[in-house]
Amino acid sequence: MADLVPANREAVMEWLKEGEDQLDWSPHLKYVAALEGGGVTPSQLADRVRHKGALGNSFYLVEEARFPSVSLTHSMISESLCSTGLSEEQWHQIPRQCPLDKMADHTGCFFVVARKKK
């Protein structure tokens, strides 16, 4: 799904709006839910994924259509991890790599490693 070809964008948009022709991601969601230790159902995970964005992102574009997005900060993500029983082990942030006039207004991307608290 990394390719930004129209068919892939359409497939993601169909999944985001829970359309009739959406791809079945349930095997992947079940796998990730199991990795999270059974504290979340695949359905809850899908809802969570549908409503997340990149750091500082308030919108993104698909061709000429502009869509709102949730603007995240490091502290928001850390607090969310903590409230779900996880501790942040590693945080890596990279600054925005694409021109400011392209596709979204995020300030960067992040990678986080979290561990279930003992």
TrEMBL record:
Q: Listed GO cellular component terms? A: cytosol
By its UniProt entry, which PROSITE patterns does this protein fall under? Answer: SAM_MT_NNMT_PNMT_TEMT
The family database entries (Pfam families) matched by this protein are listed as: NNMT_PNMT_TEMT
Extract one GO BP annotation from the record.
Answer: methylation
* InterPro entries reported in the protein's UniProt record: NNMT_TEMT_trans, SAM-dependent_MTases_sf
Swiss-Prot/TrEMBL keywords: Methyltransferase, S-adenosyl-L-methionine, Transferase
Q: Does the keyword Transferase feature in the UniProt annotation?
A: yes
Family membership: Belongs to the class I-like SAM-binding methyltransferase superfamily. NNMT/PNMT/TEMT family.
Q: Is the keyword Magnesium assigned to this protein?
A: no
Q: What is the name attached to this protein's record?
A: Uncharacterized protein
Q: Spell out the molecular function terms from Gene Ontology.
A: N-methyltransferase activity
